[in-house]
User: What shape does this take?
Amino acid sequence: MGRWLNRTEIDIIMIAFPVSWSGSQFVGMAKDLYEENDAARSVLERANTVLDLDLTSIMFGSGDASQAEADKMRLTQTQNTQPALFVHSMAVMSALPSSASMPAMVAGHSLGEYSALAAARRFPLKKDCALFDCVGN
Assistant: This one.
């Protein structure tokens, strides 16, 4: 028979990161992170450089309401969606406090598995972005 642990016996909090994939993209994704968090901004800018693509413009959209549909169509193109979702996940994770940035478990669906692997720090952002550039094209 088990017993309840009291508060002083608990010294580890386990964190799990479920990572979504295609279909969860939206125009404006990560814009708030870019504007408010230095670590997230760094991830997004580094991805632009590694991919040689202004991914943040694709993710954020033009901001022009008359272009909303065109912005959405541009983001939903596979070659843009896949790296955008991956980089968004990495930006979110980079914005977490260091005490929460290494999950005990990660899970991803479909190509979201790569975001999960990156969250577990299995390979660096440069290799991740290069992989998604290949997959998207």
